[in-house]
């Protein structure tokens, strides 16, 4: 096991460029406006992830309204959750071109539109498009910027900041479950979705709070990393080896491209200055040309960064540990989503509705999930604790709970297992931290986009698969067993790959010594 990026064996270069001159850190990094970013991300998690975790309420309404199979109806929730995460890589392209703020505001409008259109659904297939696709894409356009901005604004307390912001999922699941229950009872599910769409417009406000850091501020963040001098030297030497073996984003092509872009803008400015004596209409045309040129430069630079991260010499897929992380993500998320979607049905099967109405099992998961994220974040920020080891221990606990849940047939037993699921699933707050340790801050948006895309695929097929198994066996037991075993396969990949990665440099050094 390992505790840092140096141990992992990969560095994409930018974080190891430590300057020789001390630079005064930006007060907004690890403080100041950074806490407004945490607040914005917290509200985003309430409105998006919290609402999705409460879809079990609407799922029961859709079953009664449209009288379709559980497997088919579950696709509505799965599409919404899955597409929110699957579009991550493409949202990374939007962020590279437009920035987090613009992307989040557009996403907030699209998400609200999806909820409102779903209020007029005439069948399940209509919901696939209106809620699953439209609201799902909008959610993805807000969710990824919310995570990335916290990573940009924090360095020393990244795990704690991510933990606090992602507790919005737990709060949201608790609040939205109660809200949707009340709205569906008082106004019906159609009006409930219309009201929820109006509430979702607050995502635009959250996006407006995402004030971008300047490139200078980001450089300062890289310089003031909290590593010791010994670790810095190790990082520098190791990044040199990585450049030789895998390559990093080429500096020279970027400089050439920037020079070409500056030449284009310079020529436009030269024409504008030379044409000052011309008519007002000509000046207006030149200003439009300058704006279009600047926009073109921004788009080209954003696309170049996005393309190089996925397909260039420094592709993220050359990082073997990161690839193992992707494989884990493909199996992990469904194990967390399946209980939220199908627990209401399980409670009804076991005749536990009376106890569940007093304190719903999904609310137990949501409340304990809040404490799990904060506590695991605090533990991971301790200097003597490895974030990676905390991440793995939480995963082992969660997969054990998933395999144990079908054995519980009493409310107390289910409540205990649900509490453990809620606490151990707090490792979600560590995922951006682990991802940043693997690839660096510069590639966080694209890398985390890939991870949540894999999570989205897991969330997309998990609940319908569980519903399909139920339609065949009339039990949910096998759904949890299969999901748990697949989850265990993903954890094994995480355990094996770092060991292989550590072994290879040692073998290489032994061969060089013999030569």
From TrEMBL:
Transmembrane segments: 33-55, 75-95, 102-121, 127-148, 160-180, 192-210, 321-341, 361-379, 386-405, 411-434, 446-466, 478-496
Major place of residence: membrane
GO molecular function annotation: monocarboxylic acid transmembrane transporter activity
CDD domains for the chain: MFS_MCT14
Membrane topology: Multi-pass membrane protein
Keywords of this entry: Membrane, Transmembrane, Transmembrane helix
GO-annotated cellular components: membrane
Major facilitator superfamily (MFS) profile domain mapped to chain residues: 37-502
Compartment annotation: Membrane
Pfam hit, one: MFS_1
Entries under Gene3D superfamilies matching the protein: MFS general substrate transporter like domains
The protein's name in its UniProt record: MOT14 protein
């Amino acid at each position: 096991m390992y505790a840092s990026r140096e141990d992992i064996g990969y560095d994409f270069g930018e974080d190891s460029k430590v300057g020789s001159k001390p630079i005064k850190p930006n007060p907004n990094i690890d403080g100041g406006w950074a806490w407004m970013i945490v607040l914005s991300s917290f509200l985003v998690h309430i409105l998006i992830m919290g609402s999705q975790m409460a879809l079990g309420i609407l799922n029961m309404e859709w079953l009664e309204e449209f009288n379709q199979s559980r497997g088919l109806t579950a696709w509505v929730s799965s599409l919404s959750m899955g597409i929110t995460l699957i579009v991550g890589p493409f949202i990374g392209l939007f962020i590279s071109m437009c920035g987090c703020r613009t992307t989040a505001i557009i996403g907030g409008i699209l998400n609200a539109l999806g909820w409102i259109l779903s209020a007029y659904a005439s069948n399940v297939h209509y919901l696939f498009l209106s809620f699953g696709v439209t609201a799902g894409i909008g959610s993805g356009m807000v969710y990824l910027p919310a995570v990335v901005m916290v990573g940009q604004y924090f360095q020393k307390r990244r795990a704690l900041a991510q933990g606090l912001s992602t507790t919005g999922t737990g709060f949201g699941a608790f609040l939205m479950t109660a809200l949707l229950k009340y709205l569906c009872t008082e106004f019906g599910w159609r009006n409930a979705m219309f009201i929820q769409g109006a509430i979702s417009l607050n995502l635009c406000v959250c996006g407006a709070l995402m004030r971008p850091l300047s490139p200078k501020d980001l450089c300062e963040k890289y310089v003031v990393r909290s590593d010791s001098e010994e670790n810095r030297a190790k990082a520098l030497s190791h990044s040199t080896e990585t450049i030789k073996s895998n390559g990093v984003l080429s500096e020279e092509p970027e400089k050439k491209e920037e020079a070409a872009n500056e030449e284009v803008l310079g020529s436009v400015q030269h024409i504008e200055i030379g044409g000052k004596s011309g008519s007002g209409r000509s000046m207006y045309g030149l200003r439009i040309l300058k704006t279009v040129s600047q926009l073109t430069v921004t788009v080209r630079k954003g696309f170049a960064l996005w393309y190089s991260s996925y397909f260039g010499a420094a592709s993220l897929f050359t990082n073997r540990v990161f690839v193992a992380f992707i494989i884990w993500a493909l199996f992990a998320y469904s194990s967390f989503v399946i209980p939220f979607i199908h627990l209401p049905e399980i409670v009804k099967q076991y005749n536990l509705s009376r106890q569940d109405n007093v304190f719903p099992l999904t609310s137990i998961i949501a409340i304990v999930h809040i404490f799990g994220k904060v506590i695991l974040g605090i533990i991971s920020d301790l200097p003597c604790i490895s974030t990676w080891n905390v991440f793995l221990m939480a995963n082992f606990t969660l997969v054990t709970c998933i395999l144990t849940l079908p054995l519980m047939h009493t409310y107390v037993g289910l409540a205990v297992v649900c509490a453990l699921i809620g606490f151990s699933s707090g490792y979600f707050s560590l995922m951006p931290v682990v991802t940043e340790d693997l690839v660096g801050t510069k590639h966080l948006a694209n890398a985390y986009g890939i991870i949540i895309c894999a999570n989205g695929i897991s969330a997309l097929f998990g609940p319908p698969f569980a519903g399909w198994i139920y339609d065949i066996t009339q039990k949910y037991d096998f759904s949890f067993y299969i999901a748990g075993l697949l989850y265990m396969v993903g954890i094994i990949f995480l355990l094996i790959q770092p060991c292989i990665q550590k072994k290879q440099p040692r073998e290489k050094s032994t061969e060089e010594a013999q030569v």
